[in-house]
Fold this sequence. Notes:
By secondary structure, chain A is α+β, with helices and mostly antiparallel strands. Chain A contains 7 helices and 10 strands. Chain A is about 20% helix and about 20% strand. In chain B, about 0% of the residues lie in helices and about 50% in strands. Chain B contains 1 helix and 28 strands. Chain B has one helix at about 265, and strands at about 5, 15-20, 25-30, 35-40, 45, 55-60, 65-70, 75-80, 85-90, 95-100, 105-110, 120-125, 140-145, 150-155, 160-165, 170-175, 180-185, 195-200, 205-210, 215-220, 225-230, 235-240, 245-250, 270-275, 280-285, 290-295, 300-305, 310-315. Chains A and B meet through helix 1 and strand 4 of A and strand 1, strand 4, strand 5 and strand 25 of B. Chain B: It holds the Pfam family EIF3I. Chain B: One of its GO terms (cellular component) is eukaryotic 43S preinitiation complex.
Amino acid sequence: MAAAKLRWGELEEDDGEDLDFLLPARQVIGPDVNGIKKVIDYKFDEEGNKVKITTTTRTRKLANARLTKRAVERRSWPKFGDAVHEDVGSRLTMVSTEEIVLERPKPLGAKAEESQAAGEPFQRGAVLMVCRTCGKKGDHWTSKCPYKDLAPPPEGFVDKPTASDASTAATGATKGSYVPPSMRAGADRTSGSDMRRRNDENSVRVTNLSEDTREPDLLELFRPFGAVSRVYVAIDQKTSMSRGFGFVNFVSREDAQRAINKLNGYGYDNLILRVEWATPRTT
Amino acid sequence: MRPILMKGHERPLTFLKYNNDGDLLFSCAKDHNPTVWFADNGERLGTYRGHNGAVWCCDVSRDSGRLITGSADQTVKLWNVQTGQQLFTFNFDSPARSVDFSVGDKLAVITSDPFMELTSAIHVKRIARDPADQTAESVLVLKGPQGRINRAVWGPLNRTIISGGEDAVIRIWDAETGKLLQESDKESGHKKTITSLVKSADGSHFLSGSLDKSARLWDTRTMTLIKTYVTERPVNAVAMSPLLDHVVLGGGQDASAVTTTDHRAGKFEAKFYDKILQEEIGGVKGHFGPINALAFNPDGKSFSSGGEDGYVRLHHFDQDYFNIKL
Lengths: 283, 326
């Protein structure tokens, strides 16, 4: 293969000048043992000065391509079949623009440590690195999980009050109402459930709010009954309008109960509020 | 490494085969034209026109003079490698799935699919030196296994035929008498369809890939399970490096499910495993669909993969591949 290839270093420059015969003959030195070859050329530049050009090239054997005689012969076989009249522009064979590497599953030498960490999670602080998607310890962070795209939607979404809303629907077995996947029977509910419990403490749901009502208004309304830890008004993400319901968390349960007693059915901004416990009372 | 992409086929690839010198690469696809490429730069040398159905398998004689292809058009054809000329056509009553030349290229083993009430079968044909003397008669016909026989290859000294297929059992047959000599047992054998089977360079052991997401290495003579390589996707194709103790598994989720999931979930890389330690060495990404075919250059310095995406990707290894240590 190497023999068939034209080396650019050996290509003669053909500048078509008629004064060329005035110049000294081209000199070729080498190639020597290291494959270094010197070619000394003379030519005229634009101003008519004689210029000596020394080109040093190194010829290297191409990756010791050992080819059998047969293979070399095959190289010159004429094309046949569909390859005969192949469009020049068809570009059937392309070199990938992307550099592909042999991707190691883990960095070199990390293997032993990894298996150790899996067996004894309290070693080397690996316990901190627990993937919430696949549950693997010490291998990667959740964001780097190879199964990320297979994971259920993130917790932040589940945490929204609508979800707890729907859980009442699910437990109440009302047919036909939407139940988010995370709340369906058999869904993995372990993750994030403790977080919700904290938020659901003394949570009061306010519905039939007017669209103008914002969280400060709600706080103003509920503040007189006692210490409020959280106020939330559901805002539609697309229209950024109030969806007409909100949640208020009280520090103490009694305050929340008093607020419910007082404000349920209370006229607020031309609408009659409906105020109730956000979660169904457990027993 | 920068792989060379060869887009000669319009349909998913089914099989890849290097010739003995490693300078030609033959590719079969579900379009009807097997193609031959130069294995160094990926230039197309020619196509073999004449089949009328998906081409499932091919094999090339040791002197790179003859090509045999098995197709779903119920024929197996012999070709002149150099000119692309058809030399002979074997007609079957069902699609031909696998073809393999024996050592010496005097015999060929061909498997035919079950079709209508026909059961699958393994046929042994004599290959004449002169195509004019070629006859269509079978020397031997083996029947028995249920379902498709996806691959049948010759054992050492052409004494045996090794077959594997949909019934997940690997069988070794006597190539003379047609007697069943050995079969893989339930415990050590595959659990699902065997999709590919490849012999080592010296024929002492062979590797089988299966949809049960594993590949297994077997001793050819004793039919003992040597190694198991477990992966997380169905294995469609396997290859063994003739140079290093590496095996490559290719596969991916079922082609019908590809569009319904993220491409990252498909696991379309070719996975390299250490043959002895059974540890994963690494993965080579690139295909947009499952890998259906894998082949190693006989010099072990390059390999090619063919995917459901219709591309053949030819990879010449970088120098650091040869220095990989686990």
